[in-house]
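Record 1 of the preview.
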Amino acid sequence: MFQRFCKIFLVFCAISPFATVFSDSSPDSDELAELQFNGHPVKGIEEIKQNIFFSDELSSSEYHDDLDIEMSVLENGGNYDWDILIFTQQWPVTTCYHWREEDKDHDCKLPAAKEFWTVHGVWPTKKGHFGPSFCNKTASFDINLLNDIKDELNHFWPDIDGESKGDWLWKHEWLKHGTCAAVLEELSNELKYFSQGITWREGFQLSKILGDSGIHPDSNNTVVAINAALVKGLGKNPSIHCLYDSKKDISYLEEIRICFDKSLNVTGCDGVKLGNAVSIDYPGGTVITNCHVGKPVHYPSLVPNRRRQEQSKWKFPIVNLYKLVQFIMWFTL
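->
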């Protein structure tokens, strides 16, 4: 019996470092619950919990069409109605950082211009739901239909994923989202759909809107300040999305989403299901975000340095994995 207890104890010792490693990245929910703004409690914070810390959209692995089509069947349930269009612009520096955290060798194609936001997509969305998506399973994509605007697309709507091929991003956006937007005459074909995205990108220059309130790359700002700048420029509530680096305890500004009604007029994103973003009331307004409301959001000018744990620090869990396997084999003999 004593020998059996010793074996169990040794197995526990082998496992315990893993619990320590993975628990370090968990946010403190008590801290979130006590967040205040200018002395007033922030309403809606209880809904955020851990989800506020992680990006919900940008991942190179997001673009897996076969899986997306399967998920769309579950999400749509055959209903392709939608209420608003979400026009999403991404900050390429953070997007690249996100991908390189997943794969240190991931190649990115960043715009040459400074303070340049790029289009991620135009997404028809039903309030309270994700999607719809892939509304026409027999649709195809013809790059030749975009010849007249291809230069603008490469400029404003580029594929910054250096590992994708050719027109892959545009094809993905058209088949997944454009086929649903096409119920509107103004967006009824490829040329109209992508032209509208370019028009919105030219009309809603986030660098200028943020800059008019003194928010520029290489700065740290609260998400409330970022939201106030955007509402000042847009007149409506957008949705602000961050990438959280748990190792550095830093939130990076990643995406800003602007909502439009079916008449193509700006409308508030209130009531729209936007991944893990939630609506948070504060004195003076509402911010829709997945960013940490109690800490500054960093607006990076360069892809942040990857400061992973040193190799020596990662050896210990790996060694223990080997020990764990050995102990389990020994224990089950």
